[in-house]
């Protein structure tokens, strides 16, 4: 799985949904950050991560 660190995950999710990107799960929040998963064009899972700073 590839993991991408993003600056504002909630704003990015709004943009991804507008573009028709499939969101595989709900946004999860932990002590160390927020996570969500999307598929790439081949069906591989990509993890989007916004660390807590």
Strand and helix layout:
Layout: E1 2-5, H1 9-18, E2 28-30, E3 33-39, E4 45-51
Parallel strand pairs: 1-4
Antiparallel strand pairs: 2-3, 3-4
Helix content: 10-25%
Helix-strand string:
EHEEE
Task: Write down the Rg.
Answer: 11 Å
Q: Spans of 5+ residues with little confidence (pLDDT < 50)? A: none
Q: Which shape, going by the Cα principal axes?
A: globular
**Count of discrete domains:** 1
Structural class: alpha+beta
CATH architecture: 2-Layer Sandwich
> At the third CATH level, what is the topology name?
Signal recognition particle alu RNA binding heterodimer, srp9/1
Strand order of the largest sheet: 1-4-3-2
Distance between the termini: 24 Å
Strand content: 35-45%
Please count the beta strands (DSSP E, at least 2 residues each): 4
Task: Describe the protein in words.
This protein has 53 residues and is of the alpha+beta class. It has a single domain, classed as Signal recognition particle alu RNA binding heterodimer, srp9/1 (2-Layer Sandwich), CATH 3.30.720. It is 19% helix and 40% strand. The chain is built from one helix and four strands. Strands 1-4-3-2 form a four-stranded mixed β-sheet, with no helix packed on it. Strand 3 and strand 4 form a beta hairpin. The longest helix is centred in the first third of the chain and has 10 residues. It starts with a strand and ends with a strand.
């Amino acid at each position: 799985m590839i993991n991408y660190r993003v600056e504002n995950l909630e704003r990015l999710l709004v943009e991804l949904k507008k573009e028709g990107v499939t969101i595989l799960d709900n946004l999860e929040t932990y002590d160390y950050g927020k996570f969500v998963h999307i598929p790439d064009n081949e069906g591989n899972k990509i993890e989007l991560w916004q660390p807590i700073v």
